[in-house]
Write the structure tokens for this entry.
Amino acid sequence: MIISLKLQRGGPETLQRQVFVQIRNQILDGWLTPGLEIPASRTLAAEYGISRNTVVQAYEWLSSEGYIEANKGVGTIVSRTLPEASLYVGRTNEKLTNSRTPAAPKVPVVFKGRTPRLPDRTVRQAVDFWPGRPNSRHFPATFFKKAVDEHLGFSTMALSEYGDVAGLPALRSAIADQLKASRGISVGLDQIIVTAGIQEALNLISRLFVEAGTKVVVENPCYQGAALAFESYGAQLVPVGVDREGTTVEQLRGVSASLAYVTPSHQFPTGATLTIERRLKLLEWAQATGAYIVEDDYDSDYQYSGPPMIALAGLDNSRSVIYLGTFSKSIGAGLRTGYMVLPPQLVDHARKVKSLMNYGHPWLEQMVLADFLATGSFQRHLRRIRRSYAAVRDCLIDGLRSGFGEPDIRGAANGMHVMWRLPPGFPDPETLVAQVHEFGVEIYTLAGAGAVDFGSPYAADSILLGYSSLTEDEVKKGVRAIGRAVEAIGNHPVSGRKSWSGDPQHAGANR
Ligand SMILES: Cc1ncc(COP(=O)(O)O)c(C=O)c1O
């Protein structure tokens, strides 16, 4: 019997797991039928040039999940009784497809959304300037291991039952303390809902306010996760420009909309911080028009210089701001944990939607995070990584300066990435990104890094450099690769490249 495997060595998945998944899928598809003998581990290992232990481990997993079984005298066979009836789906479909009855046209999928772009780990180079990634070397694994162990030891009851849909009170209370100290927001824990990151909160808000044609103000350029979420519920997006002082709130005069989505601490992607004057104007607009402001405060844990800027939610006296926070940037996006702070009049509505979506956030993660915050470990962790990210950021700016002259950079005072306006004479962002990739380094155009652009002046001449996940050596390697790429392209001029001097987009409007 032949098992056909496509194994990728050195990829993100172990060989054991690849063997396990591929054989399991062939069983699920009905390609390997119940009762069929599968090759001895030694034979399969020799055929694919992998160690026998790898195959033994994969077979053990398949056996423990009920896909294969030992059969006396014959060796190992595909289980006669597969784990679930649903495993027959593949073959059932085959029967239906072959039947003579013509199939009725299927009900169309009504979802019309576009998918946000996430980095594809399998094709990225080792030195990767993807913005907004915390450095995994700093993940507080020791604390998490200990806390998971402790809580599993005596709290399995909580894992066997549903919890509060708004989230664990201990975590919400720790978040409330944290918000008061660091963002000037004074709220009770009943106004906080723990979510699966900011992305879930954006969906929850859309569910509350957006239907076909609802006007939603967004920044131009805008974080794709927000623009695409609103759009998928039928929103009519109203883009508003961004300059050095953040969102150009003046453009809102005369605009009526249900929501205005903003990233005031560190505009994504341009890095601008919204000035206090504009913050107050934005709040006035919301109060006058009845709109809600959605304040996405994704990376405000990192402020390296200047006085701390109070969040919009901290300045809001008219119950107009829905504040969104996340642990994706301070700890890791894999936690999928964030939170929203709601004006009191929205709390019950939001709790109802959260119930419909998933009945609340996983208990164990919340418990561990609550400990992490309440013991002061979170603050210590932030202090440590802030220092380290600031050093890497300095190294990046120094490198750009010595390689290419004084850099035109936005967003360096806070956050985890900068926007770099390419110096005159440089190739366009797409060409540069592609060439730098050839030298083992990833840098990003605005669109490549997940920004939706509505014709802003930035996409044509700027790139994003996220530095937080890199070491200083990696940053130096990255800057060298940019220099080599510019040289290489210089020797082979790119056809169709715009001239810098004549391009009206560079004339400075809106910058
Ligand atoms: C502007 C912005 N908001 C939010 C997020 C994070 O969302 P989440 O909490 O869903 O991971 C990101 C991540 O890159 C972001 O850039």
